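We close this part of the discussion by returning to an individual protein. In the encoding step, the backbone of a single protein was reduced to a row of integers, each denoting a local shape. The sequence in question and its structure tokens are set out directly beneath this paragraph.
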Amino acid sequence: MKTKLEKRQRRKYHVRNRLMRDGAQVRLTVSRSSKHIFAQVVDVSGRTLCGVGTTKKALATEFTGKTKTERAALVGKEIARLAKEKGVETVVFDRGSHKFHGRVKALADAARAEGLKF
């Protein structure tokens, strides 16, 4: 039997390999824990261009009193704004080992609404 970690890593590598097979592009990666969610825009060489998460002190006042899904949507809006400042308009969405629903979907929908194309 495979452990939970091994299954998660297999899902992550499967998604990452599919993205890289289609051609190296700038990607929007998502990391999620039980309490927080983080997003980064990573270029082709693996360098992080910008990143934001629910632990960011500057956004702490906006996060108070919100559900985790609403916080994820705020993170999506902020990462789209930061990416556009860096000159990134189009990305591929790297969900990692997470299913595309709930907080991950809320983050992606908010980033799309702010003008990020993927």
The helical segments are 4-21, 60-63, 68-85, 103-113. The chain has one domain: 4-113. The radius of gyration is 14 Å.
